[in-house]
Design goal:
Chain lengths: 409, 200
Amino acid sequence: MKAKALVVVFAIVVAAGVCSTASAAEVVIGALNDMTGATSDVGKDYALGIGEAVNYCNDNGGVNGKPIKLVQFDYGYRVPEALTKYKLFKRMGAVAVEGWGTGDTEALAPTVTADKMPYVSASYSGHLADPKKTPYNLFAATDYSSNARATLTAWFDKRWSKHADFGKRKPRFACSYMFASPYASAPIKAIKDQATLLGFDIGPDQDVSLFAVDTKSQVLSLKDFKPDVVWHGNTTMSVSATMRDAYALGLGADHIMNLWGFDENLPRLADKAAEGAMAATVNAFYGENTPLMPTVVEYAKKFNPGVPQEKRLSRTVQGWSNVLALWEAMKRADKAGALNGEGILQKGFETMKDFDLGLGGAKLTYTSTDHRVSGKVPVYEYKNGKFQLVQVTDLQGRWPDKWQSWLGW
Amino acid sequence: MKKQSVLMTLFGLAVAAFLLAGCAGVQKASDATFKTPEVTLSHAEIPSYFGYWFYNNKVQPSLPENAKPGNNGAPLIYAFIFNLKNTNDFPVLMDNMKFTVALEGFELNTVGSQDEIWIPAGKTTQLRVPCVFGMFEAFMSLGVVGGMDLQKMGKKPWDMLEKWWTTAPDFAFPVEVRNGSAVFKADGIIKVAAFKAKYP
């Protein structure tokens, strides 16, 4: 009687088990995105890229057979909201977070360090690249400070050497950015240091709001200094406005900028003034010829068919880069039997050496003492209606004695 | 006693068979048979209304004492009610959906649902998606992203915000759902529906 009862129970348990095998253990990752706030124009595209890339990862086995569950929230570019959502990710058992801006990422850095939560941000602030200070902050891109140094160097190499005054006087350089913005001000110290290193005269900074649509007073101030090249630290709209005013007022300078001011919208907004603009983009433009780009485009069309292709930006590719890097780190950590924060950092990210994502960016190397992914920075320019690679500036190779001292600022 | 144990065994096996049938008996989806469910906007609502007000970060809050001032304003809350129509002979899971909300052409908010929702075979399920516009976030988005368009219109961000916040309850201007996509799953097959709508 007892044996038969056991058979019955066993049969029911087996049957119920067969039905429930569909849901394997999931690996939860959180994503904080700005889809409503000041950076929503680029934040939305980045967020779409995150979602599409996670679908790609799951279609290719997830984390060694475990599907990735993406929990994605908008935080409106508000730091308090970011903190709230981060706590929610923790309650949901997230093993890592895909983050967004400089303000919230830097504000969360002490928390993610204490929690040992890998935090892969779209802020590439150089302040976040020193593992001694922010060990759990990572990104699959060259950092703002390296990008700024590399872009100014590329301008120096390619443009100044052909300038009529080359060899006769020092080149003149000035910065235009919103002083109060953590993102815009992050690489200023580094680019001025690079300007000094290359022998520039440095002019007065111009405070340009991220809201600016009229920058004539700042451009007129710049005219007094007669810069040969201006660094723009803001995002695309105010950068475009400044470039248009500079064009209209005959400033005569070249324009270099941080990557969030340089994308497919720049020529749409700045029109002719965009010609010759230069920046380190950290990866290829959407649709450009790289090994994985056809897949990126395929997933964009499949999962967001309502978004016209012409509205997709290089921000999609940035989202993919951060997801693919985290995916690789999680797979390595899982193989080592340590799919947790510490494992993802140490057995995952910090074991990557020259890891190529196939998206046109620098190959990724993370070490326990340096989270800058590479000293080689690809720099692009907008020329004849196209974004084109100008040069890969090898900062580490060119200044090997200084490279280590540039970490973290 | 013996009869009772035989009955019990049969009952157990029947339950097991029923559970297995539950898994295997339903028609399976395939890429060819899985018709993408339709997503349409039934209507939009203002489920809660907080008026139009804003105080900037120079204004000290009344409570609590020593509270940190901030840029705070009334939220504008919409709810979008969608019909999810499953014309298949099998149930379908909606895994997630997202869409952008535009007010008078300005894309201000991208929202969605990440809750898993089952739609029975041949049925229509309604889904309510709330959408909160923070006033300062909308101001920032308008200023930083839409600044040049506003300039062409001869408007400032606050002109638009006042209009939207005060006349939204009357639906004095249409609210647009753009770039919508909803991901549906059945038996491992994925289909994505694109949608857009304007209300009213």
